[in-house]
Amino acid sequence: MESLIFSIALTLLILALTFIPGAERFIHAQIWGILIFSALLGVLVAGIAAWGMSTFDAQSRPNIFLGLTVLRMLLSMVFIGIVIFSGVEERILWVADFFGVYLCYLVFEILSILSNLRAISAEGEKP
Predict the structure, then answer these.
(1) C-alpha span between 65 and 112 (Å, rounded)
(2) Which residue, among 127, 99, 116, 123, has the nearest Cα to 65 in the 3D structure?
(3) What is the pLDDT of residues 65-119, one digit of tens each?
(4) Whether the Cβ atoms of residue 66 and residue 110 lie closer than 8 Å to each other
(5) Per mean pLDDT, which of 21-25, 34-38, 121-125 is the most reliable?
(6) Angle 81-23-88 (CA atoms, 0-180°, nearest 5)?
(7) Residue of 44, 41, 48, 27 lying closest to 98 (CA atoms)
(8) CA 7/CA 16 separation, integer angstroms
(9) Where are the alpha helices (H) located in 19-90, listed in sequence order?
(10) Would you state the pLDDT for residue 124?
């Protein structure tokens, strides 16, 4: 649920930025495809994380988060490869926009993990 709210907030922010005169210099025309991919990937990662939190013990949870971060990175690399090799125009701008959105989601994911870290640590210390 938090991932969906974050996706909506990021979409509204980018939508507001597109109304700035000259925004086409720093926002690629295909930013919406990047946002859709990132939102779907965020929901997938959040779903797998929720499943992992309820299924595995507290000692395995850091491995789940690390694995999900690697999964996000690998799927993002595949997406970048597909889009770049399909011949998108203004590649550098597209890649810069992609990594801007990617880093926003990564920071959000790390902050979500850190906010739950105390509960995870306390649960892992139980005998």
Answers:
(1) 11
(2) 116
(3) 888 889 999 999 999 999 999 988 999 999 999 999 999 888 887 777 777 666 6
(4) no
(5) 34-38
(6) 20
(7) 27
(8) 14
(9) 31-55, 61-85
(10) 57
Determine the structural domain holding residue 47 and report its residue range: 2-15+32-120
SS3 category, 104? helix
Task: Give domain status of residue 47, yes or no.
Answer: yes
103 within domain boundaries: yes
**Quick check: is 37 in a domain?**
yes
Largest CA distance in the chain: 60
Name the average pLDDT for the chain. 84
Task: Give the total residue count for the chain.
Answer: 127
Q: How many domains, the chain?
A: 1
Residue 25 in domain: no
Query: What is the C-alpha to C-alpha distance for residues 92 and 82, in angstroms, rounded to an integer?
Result: 15
For 74, the token pair is: 């690998």
- One-letter amino acid identity for 26? F
Contact between residue 91 and residue 80 where contact means Cβ atoms under 8 Å apart: no
Helix axes 31-55, 2-18, angle to 10 degrees: 170
Rounded to an integer, what distance in angstroms lies between the CA atom of residue 3 and that of residue 40? 10
